[in-house]
């Protein structure tokens, strides 16, 4: 649910990508949050002012066959929904009516190729290397061409129903 022009895509990829783990420990808790229902968990701490802004309830839900987690104002999609980028020479990506960004892994067949994206007026994309470091974010660079890194990730974001034309060479 991050706006296509959000600086989050550039400076805080660790906030955008997170791994959910369940460790043995206190029953009824996950990552310091108390499990409050089948699809909810909440922090039990109340921290005043700015330091407490992210201690909100976490919600898990399924929409259109995709599993989501909403936490601290960010919306995460299950990793099982992140598919490989189409490695053919020309393809199109259309965002859903809900406007959620689409994430892709970079398959070996596409690694090292130059990707050019024709962007809609309210759209952007970012490319990350295998360590999660942003190598190109079109809002900052103004560059719609990027060499795809091995084992990297691509995110395409924009207005609902936006269409992006992608060429790989």
Describe this structure in words.
This protein starts with 7 loop residues before the first helix and ends with a strand. With 169 residues, the chain is mostly beta strands. A hairpin with a 2-residue loop joins strand 5 (66-71) and strand 6 (74-77). A 6-stranded antiparallel sheet has the order 1-2-3-4-5-6, with no helix packed on it. A 5-stranded mixed sheet has the order 7-9-14-11-12. A 4-stranded antiparallel sheet has the order 8-15-10-13, with no helix packed on it. The chain is built from 3 helices and 15 strands.
* CATH third-tier fold name of the largest domain: Jelly Rolls
Q: What's the SSE pattern? A: HHEEEEEEEEEEEEHEEE
Helical region count? 3
Q: What is the CATH top level name of the largest domain?
A: Mainly Beta
What number of structural domains do the residues give?
A: 2
Average pLDDT taken over every residue = 86
3D shape: elongated
β content, as a range?
35-45%
Oligomer: single chain
Radius of gyration: 18 Å
Helix percentage: under 10%
Largest sheet: 6 strands, antiparallel
Question: Strand arrangement, largest sheet?
Answer: 1-2-3-4-5-6
Distance between the termini: 31 Å
Structural class of the secondary elements? Answer: mainly beta
Under the CATH scheme, which architecture of the largest domain would be assigned? Sandwich
């Amino acid at each position: 649910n991050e706006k296509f022009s959000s600086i989050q895509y550039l400076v805080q990829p660790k906030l955008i990508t997170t791994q959910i783990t369940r460790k043995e420990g206190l029953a009824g808790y996950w990552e310091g949050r108390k499990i409050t229902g089948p699809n909810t968990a909440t922090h039990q701490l109340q921290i005043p002012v700015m330091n407490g802004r992210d201690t909100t309830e976490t919600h898990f839900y399924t929409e259109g066959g995709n599993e989501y987690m909403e936490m601290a104002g960010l919306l995460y999609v299950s990793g099982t929904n992140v598919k490989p980028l189409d490695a053919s020479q020309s393809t199109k990506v259309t965002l859903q009516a809900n406007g959620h960004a689409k994430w892709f892994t970079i398959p070996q067949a596409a690694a090292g190729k130059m990707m050019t994206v024709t962007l809609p007026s309210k759209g952007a994309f970012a490319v990350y290397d295998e360590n999660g470091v942003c190598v190109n974010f079109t809002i900052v660079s103004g560059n719609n061409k990027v060499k795809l890194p091995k084992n990297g990730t691509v995110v395409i974001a924009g207005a609902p129903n936006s269409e992006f034309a992608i060429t790989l060479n």
